[in-house]
Amino acid sequence: MPSSSAPVIVWFRDDLRVGDNPALVHATEAGRPIIALYVLDLISEFPRPLGTATRWWLHGSLESLRTSLLRVGIPLVLRCGPTIDVVRDLAEETGAEAVAWNRRYDPAAVALDNEVANAMHDLGVKVVTCAANLLFEPSDVTTKAGGSFRVFTPFWRAALQRGAPRVPLPLPSDRSNPLKVSGDELSEWTLRPAQSEWAHKLSRVWQPGEQGALERLSEFVDRRLNGYARARDRPDREGTSRLSPHLRFGEISPFQIWHAVRNRQGEDADRFRMELGWREFNHHIAFHHQDLHERNVQPRFDAFPWRENESSLQEWQEGRTGYPIVDAGMRQLRETGWMHNRVRMIAASFLVKHLLVDWREGERWFWNRLVDADPANNPANWQWAAGSGADAAPFFRIFNPIRQGELFDPEGSYVRRFVPELAGLPAPQIHSPWTVGEQRLKDAGVTLGKTYPHPVVDHKAAREMALDALKDLRNSS
Ligand code: FAD
Known about the structure:
The structure is a single chain. The protein is mostly helical. The protein has helices at 22-29, 52-71, 83-94, 107-123, 152-160, 197-205, 210-223, 228-231, 244-248, 254-260, 267-288, 310-318, 324-336, 341-354, 359-369, 377-386, 401-408, 413-418, 438-443, 459-476, and strands spanning 8-12, 34-40, 76-80, 98-102, 126-130. It is built from 20 helices and 5 strands. It has a 5-stranded parallel beta sheet, sandwiched between helices. Helix 3 packs parallel to helix 4. The termini are far apart. The site of flavin-adenine dinucleotide (FAD) has 27 residues, from helix 9, helix 11, helix 14 and helix 16. Flavin-adenine dinucleotide (FAD) binds next to helix 9, helix 11, helix 14 and helix 16.
């Protein structure tokens, strides 16, 4: 029988915040000492190793969490090792009464959490799990027949019919007498590369952590929500919230975001809420589809004739395809760890449909490079772009990267920023430099094939090839 001084362990995962944190609130209500735990599990590499950019982010996020927790008198304990062993050891060592956590939904995460729960039951330690990171539990939103949704619109309608998302929970009250428990130093985990120019650049653009997330939200609501519905598609403007990496690590909850805009009417607020809905939908898909980053949601795509195309893949990764809007996006990703949504769609479509490279290659690259690389949003969006996903863009709808550039970067300023070697070209030709006359190119200091590549494929020919590949798939199924 645990004594009344037996602590409650709050196991933090993708919920690195103190505000609106149901597991933490539950633990404080128990009136016992609290141990906040974060586990780095490199051994089982669960669910797959974090990428370079998310490791960078995690470091900042944990630093910020440690500070916020200390303000309410709770120490953050960092431990590295196989998750089950770490949680079990800490529970035994401290004689914990309970372990509380906020639920995850990816099948691999659910399986691990169940294993930890079983290990705690064997020890006689209580397990408390809370809903915190999605507005709607995936298992609660079902079709009339009780199944899962595969199309966004009815999913979102059914979700909203469940009633308004709950209001955010208050900050936990200050604790006295924190327990002293040993843990690792964050710097020992070397999540950030030493002396890296890339890391310095990221620090200039982002402020990981709860404080940065709340500031971004209020700045967005005050200054950019008005006009969002139109500006969100323009990579040349700061038209979106850039909350995605904060949401990825749970530094802010979707409930806090929802309630910050709940009284706003009109197409801008509706559109913004709908984007949060896409996040919910993708987690719903990931909950119902194991290994979303490896397996096609539509199995007929298993027979798609993807090409082994190492050199094209590399050109795409390095932003040297010769299509300026694609290259600008890929370089934005390299430089800032983030890419505008419209350009993610264009770049992903280009890889799978113009170069016929398997979407999994692109997903892996994004996974490694994006600060918001998310186990549900990344593979679900890649499968959307490839046509193999739930409610996906049909494969035969092929983005024209020149037209997309002209439409969404009409003055060419996004391309000029990230592809400076084309800066001297006028819009709209900046999106198709090979159509610019020789003298004009010369005046702008551009030599195609030298200072900037020729297009790696011809748009029309690539389109035909993609449609032929789709025909082959149809014939084979
Ligand atoms: P806003 O426009 O301000 O939207 C607010 C929030 O809504 C976002 O932070 C995000 O949580 C959610 N949201 C917006 N668009 C989408 C969408 N299409 N799907 C799901 N949720 C959305 N998003 C990630 O968070 N992580 C990823 O790893 C990721 N990979 C992607 C890969 C591809 C190929 C594509 C096409 C999209 C991907 N997205 C991913 C979705 C989207 O691009 C980003 O969520 C968005 O660009 C983030 O910017 P923001 O926060 O300014 O978005």
